[in-house]
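Note to self: user wants both folds in one dump. Writing first protein now.
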Amino acid sequence: MEVDDMPFIKYPDLESLRRVEYKELLIGREMVVTVKRDGSNVSNYTDNGVPCIGSHHQARAPEDIEKRMKASQDYAGIVGLLKDYPGVNAFGELLSGRGPTKIELEVKTVPEWHLFDIIDGNTYRWFDYDKLTSLSSAYKIRLVQCLRRFTPNSIDEIGTMLSEMMTWCNENHYEGVVCKTYGDPKTVMFKQRVVIDVSKVPIKDKPAGPALPMMDMERITRSLQHAYDEVIAAHGKSGWLDTKIAMPVIAKHLHLEAAEHRVAIPRDMFRLYNDTLRPGTLLNTKVVGARDSK
C-alpha cells in the first residue's frame, strides 16, 4: 500500500504525573522508563520525499540546530529510516557541547542525536520501545537509555519508582526520566525532572545577536504549573500563598523554560504569580500527556 508523506508533527509537551489526565491507563500496563537527556528536542521527517529537520515547536529548526543535526553520526541512519518508513516523524534529543541546564557533566565535542520516539503520521500510532530498539540497531541510530520496565499496580507504586529514579538521576547527573505506556486505548506519557539549581543555568536576556522571542502564554502557564506542583509537594497549598516560597520557584521554572527553548524570560513575574491566585486559575487543570493513539 502506498503511504503518503505527512508533514511536521509537533512532539507533545509532557507534564508531570500529577497532571496526567488518563492515570487509570497507567495501572496494569507495562511502563517504559527512559532517561531524559539535557539537549534540544529535534525531529526528523519528510516533506514530498525530502528529509526535513524540525525543532520542538517549529517545522524548520534554526540553522545552527540543522547544522548540528546533519553533523551527527546518527543523521545518515535517520535519513535511511525515513526513506524506508515514509510518513513517520522521528523525535530525538540533540546533544552538543553542554545542555541547556548544564546538569550533564560530559561535553559533547561531536553532536549526538538520541532517538526517543517515532510516530506514524498516517495512523498517529506511536512505535513501542521494542520497535525503537530494533530500528536503532538496524539503522545505527543512538537510542535513549531504558532504565526500567515494569507493570505498576497503583499510582503509589509509580510514585515510589519516581523517587528511586530521581535519586539515580541526581547521582548520575541526568535531568530526569520520561515514562510511557504504549498501545490501545491510548499511549500515555509523562516526565519527572530533578530539582535543578537554576544558578547554574546561564541565559542572556539581551543577546548580542537578534533579540530572543517572547515566551508565549502556553509556556508561561506550563512553567507556573510546574512551580505550583513543586511548591505544594514541599510545603502544601499554603506555601503557594507565601511569596517568599513561591516566587523563587516560579523564577526558576521560567528560567529553565527560557533556557531550554531559547525564549525571553517574562519580566512581569509577580503579576503572573498574582494572576494564579484568582478564581478560575489554570493551575489545577489536567493536561493530557500525549496525543492520543487511535
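First done. Writing the second protein, which came from a different request thread.
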Amino acid sequence: MSSLSQSTGPRRMATSVTLMLCLAAAVAGAIEVWTPETGQVDLNAPQDSAEARFREAVEMIASGDPDSGLARLEELLAEYPNAEWAESAGYLTRLEPFTAVLQARSLQEQMRLRHAAALLAADQSMSGVAQLRKLLAEHPGAEWAERAHYLIGVGLFGAGRYAKAFEQWEAFLSQYPESRMRHTVCEMQLRAAGRRAGEDLEKGLALYDCLIAGASSEEFTVRCQKEKADASLRAGEYLRASDEYLTLIDRHPDSPWAPYAWYKIAQCHLRTAEWVGRGGEYLEQARRTFRDFAANYPEHQLAGKAREELAEVRAMQAARFKNIAEYYLGPGRRPSSALPYLRYIQSELADTPLAEWAGEKMKETLSGERVPVRGHYPELGLPGVSVREQEEPEAE
C-alpha cells in the first residue's frame, strides 16, 4: 500500500479497495486496460525505461513514421524478449506499414486508457477523469468508449463527488441500455446514493427514489428500499426509517428482506424511546415487535439478537416503572398509587431483576394501608400499565 493511502485514513483506504474492484470489472472485456492481476502501471517509472521506449516507438508509428518505429520495436524485442509488452510489439512488427500505423493508433489509445485507469487506482481520481474525458473527446466512437464512460464515474466516486458519479452512471445506462456492465453500474449507483445520504440525507434519499423508479427487477427494488431505510436509521431519523421499512413490507411482503425490516422497525422503536427519554409507548412497541420477531422467525440469523434486545427492553421498562413507583412511595405522597406499577413489574416483567424488589414493595405498601385496597387500581393514563383487580391481602 502506498504512503498516500496510509495517510488518508480508513475511509480513503476503503475507497481505494472499491476502486480496484470496480476497475477490475471495467476492464474485463476484450481490451485490457488495467487490473490488479496484471500489475499496476508504474507512474513514477524512469523515462528511459524499456516501457517508455516501447511507448515512444508506438507513438512514432501512430504519428506516420512506421519505418523508424518498427525498427525501434525490433531492437527492443531483441533486448527484452520477455517484456510485458513484447507480444504487442511482435504483432506490430509483422504487419504492413500502413496496417501497423492503424494498429499503433489503436494501441496508443489503449495505453492512454490504461494510464488513466492507473491514475484512478493511484488515488489521483480527477486527473484520471480528465484524461478519460480528453480521450473520449478525441475518440467518441472507440470500442473502449463504454468502459471509459464507466471509469469516469469510478473516478468521480473516488474523488467523493457521489452525486456527479451517480449522474455519470445514469447517463451511461441511457447510452448503453444493453451493456453487460449494467448490474455493476447499478450496484455502484446504490453505493453512491448511500455515500450521498451520509453527507445530505434528503439528497441521498432522492437518489434512492431515482433507483427505485428505474429498477429493472423486484429484487433490486427491494434492496434500494432497504438501503434507503437503513440510511434514514443511520442518520437518526427513526420515525422516517420505520416508515421506510414498513413500505418495504407492505409492497414486498414475501421478500427475504421482510424479516430484516421487522427487526429494524423494533430497533427504530427502541432508539426513539431512548431519544425521547421517557418513551414508554415506544418501549412497549419495541417489546412487542422484538417478541413477535423472535416468535415468527426463530431460525433467522437476527433472532438471537432480537431476544437479547427484548430482554434489554424489558429491563428498561422495569426500571422506568420502578422510578414512577418510587415517586409515589416518597414521603407525603400516596403509596397506593404505586401499586399498578409494582404489580406490572412483578407479573408482566417477572424475568427482570426488579421483579423481586417490586414484590417486596407491594407487601410493604399493602401492609401499611389503613383501609384494605379493594376493587380496581386507579387508571393513571400512562402507557404500558393495565388496570388490574387487586384482591384483599391475606391476614397475617
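Dump finished. Worth passing along: The two ends are 79 Å apart (CA to CA).
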